[in-house]
């Protein structure tokens, strides 16, 4: 059984936000699609929203009773802007919040981990989605995708560490369930795909499916940090390089049944994603 209402999807033009909005509207739910420029998203009501422009928040929350919360990209301390917004959301009648975090960031940890820690005290109905790394990092607008297209190389400091890469469509399916099911999860949901793969495995599968040679270039933590610093704020680059080092140490070598348990179908494989998107 699902419940009806109006859902604010923050980041509705992004990787998981766009897919969550699409799945909600396909199921007949009313969605306010929030983006900086109020971009039209099919089947939704577009609304302007900017984490760093509090004047946009009230209009975005008008008439909303649930919200899909995506942190601001590249901010190493997102709680500063997110927590005031979430308190405002509770005040105006939002009763369910679903937060996108990461399997690499525990409750109370750095960045969005602070928001995760605060969420249960703000809302009676809530969920924190902690997906593993996105499969779409290799097919979308991510730096890995760009380096694959430009020179056939994936650069990481992950060594031979394995990751339960997850399809963003599966993340969106869990998000839609968590937002609309009669019973909110009220918990921390770690999401993975069906297999744990190293970046060497990823390069080999891309090569096999596309016919274009792709290799994984193993960098040290220091080289990866410096490489990322050329593209990102220093604090965020250090955090991402640290996540690579954690992968090398085995932190992401795990699988969960969350997608199957909540959606009723198995999580999609990386090969299936490539065949669909490349």
Please tell me about this protein's structure:
The chain is α/β, with parallel strands linked by helices and 278 residues long. The chain contains eleven helices and eleven strands. It has helices at 15-26, 57-61, 79-91, 113-122, 143-151, 168-180, 199-210, 221-229, 234-248, 258-263, 270-277, and strands at 6-10, 30-35, 45-48, 66-69, 96-100, 125-131, 153-156, 162-163, 187-191, 197-198, 215-218. A seven-stranded parallel sheet has the order 3-2-1-4-5-6-9, sandwiched between helices. Strands 7-11 form a two-stranded parallel ribbon. It has a two-stranded antiparallel sheet with strand order 8-10. Strand 5, helix 4 and strand 6 form a beta-alpha-beta unit. 46% of the residues are buried.
Task: Please provide a brief summary of the model.
This protein is of the alpha/beta class. The protein is built from eleven helices and eleven strands. The protein is globular and about 50 Å long.
């Amino acid at each position: 059984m699902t419940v009806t209402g109006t859902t604010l999807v923050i980041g509705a033009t992004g990787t998981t936000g766009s897919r969550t909005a699409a799945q909600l509207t396909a199921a007949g739910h009313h969605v306010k699609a929030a983006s900086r420029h109020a971009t039209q998203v099919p089947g939704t009501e577009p609304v302007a929203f900017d984490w760093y422009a509090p004047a946009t928040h009230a209009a975005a929350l008008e008439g909303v009773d649930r919200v899909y919360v995506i942190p601001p990209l590249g901010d190493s301390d997102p709680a500063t802007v997110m927590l005031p917004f979430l308190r405002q959301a509770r005040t105006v009648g939002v009763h369910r919040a679903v937060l996108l975090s990461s399997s690499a960031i525990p409750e109370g940890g750095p960045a969005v981990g602070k928001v995760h820690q605060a969420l249960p005290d703000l809302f009676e109905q809530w969920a924190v989605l902690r997906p593993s790394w996105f499969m779409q990092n290799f097919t979308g607008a991510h730096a890995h995708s760009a380096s694959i297209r430009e020179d056939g190389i994936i650069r990481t400091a992950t060594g031979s560490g394995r990751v339960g890469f997850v399809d963003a469509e599966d993340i969106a399916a869990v998000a839609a369930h968590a937002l609309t099911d009669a019973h909110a999860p009220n918990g921390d949901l770690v999401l993975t795909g069906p297999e744990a793969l190293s970046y060497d495995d990823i390069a080999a599968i891309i090569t096999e499916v596309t016919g274009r040679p792709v290799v994984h270039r193993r960098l040290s933590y220091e080289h990866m940090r410096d490489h990322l610093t050329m593209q990102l704020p220093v604090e965020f680059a250090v955090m991402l390089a640290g996540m690579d080092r954690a992968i090398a140490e085995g932190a992401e070598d795990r699988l969960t049944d969350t997608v199957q348990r909540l959606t009723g179908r198995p999580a999609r494989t990386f090969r299936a994603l490539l065949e669909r998107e490349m």
